[in-house]
Amino acid sequence: MASLNGVNYIIAIPILSVLLLLVGALTAAFMHPERFKNTRTAVFISIMGSMAVVVLAFNVILTTINLQTQNTINKAKFTKQAIDELWLFPNQLLKDTQYARPEFLASLYYNNKILYEITKNQKTKPTVKSELEEQYISLVLIQSWEDYLTLKNWDNTGDEVWLHNFLQWAQSPYLKAVYDNLKYNFADTTIELGDLLFDYAEKLPIPTTDPEIYTIAITKLLRDPKLHKIFKAISNKD
After folding, report:
1. Structural domain containing residue 61
2. The model scores a pTM over 0.85
3. Is the sign of the CA dihedral 198, 174, 166, 214 positive or negative?
């Protein structure tokens, strides 16, 4: 924020302007109007009034610049927060899991042919611990969709990047099963986004080894009126 020797411009300039106008008003009040308008004081007050208008305009400009700068800083912070919460944390969680079944983990990365080939015929018997951990991971991923909708207006990453990642997760039949059971714990807009993602995901081949397939799907998704309706509902809440 602009300052000079610790004095805030945005606070000091309006105060200075008000003082100038106040001096002019008091001087005019204590002098005879007809005599006052022909004095040097009248000229001085007129100049001060003009200066007050100028400094007020200057203050408006400074305030606007300050708000734009602060908005840029806020967006950068929210973008970092979004990347940490919606991308890095879920992937770290998947990497560090102890009990989730290999086929569950691989299903979230159907773009990875190696993982698919390793696990495609695997049918690991579920345990209490594996079920609980897979459910927790699934809830974190679905929560990422909800957080994305909450942060999207402040995030500079772009819808294409996030939707590409979310669509990849939505190819998982294991995630779909948890989602169908627990989706009503989330906001209506999150449910609408989830339903839309799973609709698009089920049309994709498994494994999805060609990245262009995701790009084409996301292009169609971004044009979908259902997605526009979700974005509009989120904007109306802000």
Report:
1. 3-67
2. no
3. negative
Is 224 or 70 the better-scoring residue by pLDDT?
224
Judgement on whether residues 109 and 224 belong to the same structural domain of the protein = yes
Query: Cα–Cα distance between 132 and 130 in angstroms, integer?
Result: 6
pLDDT digits (tens, 9 = 90+) for 111-148: 999 999 999 999 999 999 999 999 999 999 999 999 89
- Among 188, 189, 174, smallest CA distance to 141 is for 174
How far apart are the C-alpha atoms of 193 and 142, rounded to whole Å? 10
55 exposed, middle or buried (CB, 10 Å; 0-12, 13-18, 19+)?
Answer: middle
Phi and psi torsions of 38, nearest 5°? -100, 5
**DSSP 3-state assignment of 101?**
coil
The residue behind tokens 């080939």 is 117
Instruction: Answer whether residue 26 shows pLDDT above 90.
Output: no
Find out whether 130 and 197 touch, Cβ atoms under 8 Å.
no
Last residue of some domain: 48, 67, 86?
67
Q: Token digits for 195?
A: 């339903």
